[in-house]
């Protein structure tokens, strides 16, 4: 997991894409690290938790377009950032 976290900090999109390609399930910690580094990385996370969604949109409101069926709270958080 430590190596995955370093990779997620350095190349978040590439890391999540490769993990998905090889059927490696990223831990929530790795996923949150990727989202904190690059909010739009959420598009590579299947069924992200509301916490992950909030982290993404608070870092970049445009990440909202990659979230399916966001809650009202997530939508409002995205608007506050813009």
List keywords for this structure.
82 residues, mainly alpha
Please identify the structural class as seen in this structure: mainly alpha
Q: If you average the pLDDT, what whole number results?
A: 94
How many β-strands, per DSSP?
Answer: 0
Count of individual helical segments: 5
Overall radius of gyration: 12 Å
What coarse outline follows from CA principal-axis ratios? elongated
How many distinct domains?
1
Stretches with pLDDT under 50, minimum 5 residues: none
How large is the share of residues in beta strands?
under 5%
Largest sheet: none
- Percent helix, as a range, is 55-70%
- C-alpha end-to-end distance: 33 Å
> Could you spell the SSE succession in H and E letters?
HHHHH
Short description:
This protein has 82 residues and is mainly alpha-helical.
Your description of this structure?
It contains 5 helices and no strands. Helices cover 60% and strands 0% of the residues. Helix 1 crosses helix 2 (12-21), helix 1 (2-10) packs parallel to helix 3 and helix 3 (28-37) packs parallel to helix 4. With 82 residues, it is mainly α. The chain has one domain (2-81). The mean pLDDT is 94.
Write the layout of secondary structure elements.
Layout lengths: L1 H9 L1 H10 L6 H10 L12 H10 L12 H10 L1
Helix pairs in contact: 1-2, 1-3, 2-3, 3-4, 4-5
């Amino acid at each position: 997991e430590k190596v995955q976290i370093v990779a997620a900090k350095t190349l978040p999109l590439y890391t999540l894409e490769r993990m998905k390609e090889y059927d490696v399930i990223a831990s929530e910690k790795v996923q949150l690290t990727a989202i904190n580094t690059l909010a739009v990385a959420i598009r590579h996370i299947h069924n992200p938790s509301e916490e992950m969604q909030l982290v993404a949109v608070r870092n970049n409101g445009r990440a909202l377009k990659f979230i399916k069926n966001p809650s009202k709270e997530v939508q409002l958080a995205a608007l506050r950032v813009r």
